[in-house]
Structures are given as C-alpha cells and as structure tokens.
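__Protein archive entry__

___
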Amino acid sequence: MTNQRILSHFHESAETKIQSATVLAQPLAQAIELMFSALSNGNKILACGNGGSAADSQHFAAELVGRFERERFPLPALALTTDTSLLTAVANDYSYREIFSKQVQAFGQAGDILLAISTSGNSANVMAAIEAALEREMRVVALTGKGGGAIGKMLTDADVHICVPAERTARIQEVHLTCIHCICDGIDVALFGGDVHE
C-alpha cells in the first residue's frame, strides 16, 4: 500500500509536468525575456510567496545571486521572505497582508521585476505586493495554479502569468520549481549562449 502511494505521487507529478510543458512554454519564454531585459538594464528581481512558495522565492534568489549551472557574475535578486525582524515588525505593527508590499515600496524601482508566487493565486500579501509593484511601474511575473485566482485578474498585458494547470498544491509546487529552473537556465543562455546541456 505504501509503495503504491509513493509510485502514484511520482506518476502524478510526471504527468502534471508533461501536461504543463506545452501550456507554460510560451509564458516561460516571455518571463525569461522580461527578466533578462530588466537585468541587462541594471534592474533587479524581487521575489515573494508564503510557505513552500517562500522557499521557492529564496531558491530563485540563491540561483541568481550565486549560480545556477555555470560560473557567472552575481545577478541582483532578493527574496522578501528572509528578514524575520522586518517581517514580524510589519506583521505586528500593520498587518500580515503588508509584509511584502512594504518591502516592494522600500526596494522596488521602475523597471524592476516582482516574481510573485502563490499556488492558489489568492494570497493576500502577494496580491498587495503586486499592487505595490504596479504602482512603482515594475513588471510582474506571477507563478500560480488552480486557475490563477485573483492574481490572474490583477496582471496587466505587460506582465507574465505562469499558471500551472493543476489543482493539487504539491503538484503545483513541483511544477513551480521546474519553472524556476527553466527561468534560471534561460537567463544564463541569454547571457552566454548555448551550454553543454544542449
């Protein structure tokens, strides 16, 4: 019984990724182009999300500031999920809804990118961050699932919506990680051309 459940997780994950590939290839290409253009112009990428999506934000920032699969100069990316003093102060003094938006207001500039991650598309603090980003003339790349939720309706034509065609949170998160790796690889290829994996 346990082995069968484990196998079903692997099979469902693989099937979700295969189904997502054709749906997400174009928005992922648009996200790569948007982010590469911003980085080339001296702008930065801010990333946010809750729970597993917070971990994905940090994973993304680590890949850009450190490296993905090859040596290169550090790229400016910042996860808005890591400063516990800042997060708890804003949550306590204002509200949990503002923990990311205040940081976008503090650090975001016109031309920067917000990577907004929410499996449901309905995370209130991620939505507030998007509002703050749009007010600052930043562009948004949203990673969602479950139809995109309210976030899908907030985005402009200049933004990119990467909505995983799945309902189960674990499967959406697994595809989000693959998307993040696709973006990191795409940025590296845009910077340096093809690599050994081609």
